[in-house]
Queue: 2 jobs
Job 1
Amino acid sequence: MIVNLVYVALGGGLGAVLRYLTFLGAGRWLGGGYPWATLTVNVVGSLLMGLLVGWLMRRGGTGEHLRLFLGVGLLGGFTTFSAFSLDFALLWQRGDTGTALGYALISMAASIAALFAGLALMRAGA
């Protein structure tokens, strides 16, 4: 168990650093005014999650430490959107298209609403 936590922590730290560097680079090369960095980490992270899961499946599901380090840790630190995208894709591929679409809508709406609620609570002095 401790070893697994170390894999996740190391990957998460690296993912967070890569996310920060992406934000610095996007701001420098693409300018402000549009959330290019967030878009980049979400799209790239989702692509990498798909490649990782496909590669692990091709290997017969082996590689738990790689999954923990790369999938949960690195990609989790880089973008949580990759995990959301994987959950959506798994539901869709199982044929649960209604559940997948509902999950996507609820995830986006609830997350945005929760962010606004947090902002409102802080403005109210909570």
Job 2
Amino acid sequence: MQLLLVRHALPFRTEAGEGADPELSEEGWQQARRLPDALARFPITRLVSSPQRRAFQTAEPVAEALGLSVDIDDRLAEYDRGLSHYVPIEQVRTEHPEEWARMAAGHLPGTVDEDAFRGRVAAALADIVAATEHDDTVAVFSHGGVINVVLHELLGTARLLSFPIDYVSVTRLLYARSGQGTVAAVNSTEHVWDLLPRNRR
């Protein structure tokens, strides 16, 4: 079976007290609308999403194109779900250099229960794999931290946060009948390269 891990598109920023569950920005919707064509070559049979709006809104154009519903799995939420605000990662780098340095070193923010986060993400992926037929493809819409946890568990990386995961990037995993996973591609962005913040400066 095949899993396509799709990071959400660019959301709005929120300020303290507004919560960490923003909707997609207009630029984010432009990014998300690239996904139906980008994923058309894959025989997708199921869509699963984090409960956070930036993830399931990213899934909406694909769901509409394929005529599929989106299953929500709370365990796929990002580690920031309970925070009072949301700052896009590229802004964290310039506004909160100490927090950025910690993440660049491969660590989650100090307030996050890393073991609990890893545990719930691993459980969600295990359930998705167990419920999927060998010839099926599932697209999972989630977050950079979630995708890094999955890659960490599969590859045994030294750091939890080892890979840059861009907006609406696709990370492709293949699973044998035994349940053994293989990483086929990480952070594929050719479909949205021109819309990524780092390429629009």
